[in-house]
Design brief:
By secondary structure, this protein is an alpha/beta fold. Helices cover 26% and strands 15% of the residues. The protein contains twelve helices and 14 strands.
């Protein structure tokens, strides 16, 4: 058995913190994730750096905020010059491997056209183009046969088995494998062959792809193969097992499609529960009332109660499928003989409104349903069940892994290790800052949103650049954030104090890397 601890990190996509059995969800069944939590520490108040896929994944990898590492919103990229904690692990003697979704570079090949000056064209940038190769996740990179190895290292990963995009249309190496091993792959991808169903929820699609050919199963299969190779011993390893689900579209395969009944789910936080809906909430409601569709499937939208229930049932199916395959990976870890020397981590890149105030998906309103994600750390040093109420952030994961591995972090890392808080008795953070940077105007905003949120144990305050309104919620009396106190005179002193604390965060956020190389 290796002396340094191994790390097995599971990450899901668009998975809110309360959608686990161990988090108290009354319907969703996740026995394998619950078992990890039963022998680890589950965080109750763990938040992302930015509640969108690419920026927060880059924050996990670098331990830095999106406005600092540069992947500010989807469609940007993480520079190949960026140091990651995986780079440090690899340099420290770890074997590093990634299975499934990466999304540190765009996985589409369509450049956006800018219209800042009302002329549709690509706009020159303040920085000259980086000379790195940033097409590794694009479709053209996977036109070659699947036996052609993925070019590594990739942000520190020495071995990569990638699935790009979401649902049953995933590409990458999974897409290569699917095309080469499934004779009727074109028929299975043809929307005309969708299986019959009576759901009307937007993006609900009953895929004909069998369970064992679905991306969730493929990601687990690849991780299992890797762990089986570890039976021979060797260097300690870090394995990143990244499932593209339960991100929309809502298309769990096989038995997972109707594993849950929509009628088993409540719309327990309807739109009318909010006493003074914010402008973007009102905008989405007007769109819904007039039947206007979102511009693209990735945009947040308001849904009817029935559509919320259907989306919840299908999301639950995707989560339980992930849980089943996590169980398979854990069994392989135990069979490899490395379970007793492996730190097991479970988290997600962001959440989903999933019916809160009848909203779906994610957007510029930083509700806890999209900023708060699962975080479980099961350490072989203890393997005891614990729960911590302390605040912590995605940017803390990298520092914590390096701390546990006995490796020093690089200059400029902004996260801090929460190892000392794992017993549930210590406070790691008094507050967390959460960013939101949109790539374009949506949810009724006239320009791309730039927002900053400060979240303490008692308050959530959000400021939107250029807007006269904001958000302020008393989490002690209003934990579900239904009464915005931004304009309430009785809360003006709290608002002023929180604003100063947010300014303090922003002041400390200046990049400290690279250091000066000369006196002057």
């Amino acid at each position: 058995m290796t002396q340094k601890p191994n790390f097995l990190l599971f990450i899901t996509d668009q998975h809110r913190a309360d959608w686990l059995g161990c988090a108290g969800h009354p319907v969703v069944r996740t026995p394998n994730i619950d078992a990890i939590a039963a022998k680890g520490t589950r965080f109750e108040d763990f938040h992302v750096a930015l509640p969108v896929c690419m920026p927060n994944r880059a924050s996990l990898m670098t331990g830095r905020m999106p406005s600092v590492h540069g992947l500010r919103h989807n469609g940007c990229l993480l520079s190949e010059r960026a140091n990651t904690f995986v780079d440090v692990l690899a340099a420290g003697g770890y074997a590093t491997a990634s299975f499934g979704k990466s999304h540190l570079q765009p996985f589409t090949d369509s450049p956006p056209l800018r219209k800042e000056d009302h002329v549709e064209r690509l706009v020159p940038e303040a920085w000259k183009s980086d000379t790195g190769k940033y097409t590794k996740e694009e479709p053209a990179s996977f036109d070659k046969p699947s036996d052609a190895p993925f070019e590594t290292p990739y942000y520190g990963f020495q071995h990569v088995e990638m699935a790009t995009s979401h649902g049953d249309q995933c590409g990458g190496q999974y897409g290569q494998w699917f095309r080469e091993t499934v004779p009727n792959w074109q028929e299975l991808h043809d929307p005309a062959n969708e299986l019959a169903h009576d759901y009307t929820c937007p993006q609900a699609y009953r895929t004909p792809i069998p369970e064992d050919k679905y991306p969730t199963a493929w990601v687990a299969d690849k991780a299992i193969s890797y762990l089986e190779e570890r039976k021979a011993g060797g260097d300690p390893f870090f394995a990143f097992v990244s499932f593209p689900d339960p991100h929309h579209p809502f298309n769990p395969p096989g038995k997972y499609w109707d594993m849950y009944d929509p009628n088993d789910f409540d719309v327990d936080l309807p739109y009318d529960a909010h006493q003074n809906p914010t402008p973007p909430m009102q905008h989405e409601t007007k769109m819904w009332e007039t039947g206007e569709e979102p511009a693209i499937p990735q945009f947040a939208f308001r849904a009817s109660d029935q559509h919320v229930r259907e989306a919840k049932a299908l999301t639950a199916g995707m989560i339980t499928m992930i849980d089943d395959h996590i169980g398979r990976v854990i069994d392989a870890l135990k069979a490899s003989g490395e379970y007793d020397n492996t730190v097991i981590i479970f988290t997600s890149d962001h959440g989903d409104y999933l019916g809160d105030f009848n909203l779906m998906l994610k957007g510029a309103i930083p509700l806890p349903s999209i900023t708060r994600v699962p975080m479980i750390w099961s350490d072989p040093a203890t393997r005891k069940g614990a729960q911590t109420e302390t605040l912590a952030s995605t940017i803390d994961i990298s520092a914590s892994i390096l701390d546990r591995a006995g490796l020093a972090p690089y200059n400029g890392i902004q996260g801090s290790s929460f190892i000392e808080a794992l017993d549930g008795t210590q406070v790691h953070r008094d507050e967390v800052m959460i960013e939101h940077n949109d790539g374009g105007p949506r949810m009724g905003f006239t320009k791309a949103v730039r927002a900053r949120t400060l979240r303490t144990k008692d308050w959530r305050m959000s400021i939107f650049a250029g807007e006269t309104w904001g958000e302020l919620y008393d989490l002690n009396t209003d934990p579900r954030e239904c009464n915005n106190l931004w304009d309430d005179p009785s809360a003006k002193d709290v608002r002023a104090e929180l604003t100063l604390r947010l300014v303090d965060h922003l002041t400390f956020q200046m990049d400290e890397s690279p250091r000066a190389t000369r006196l002057a």
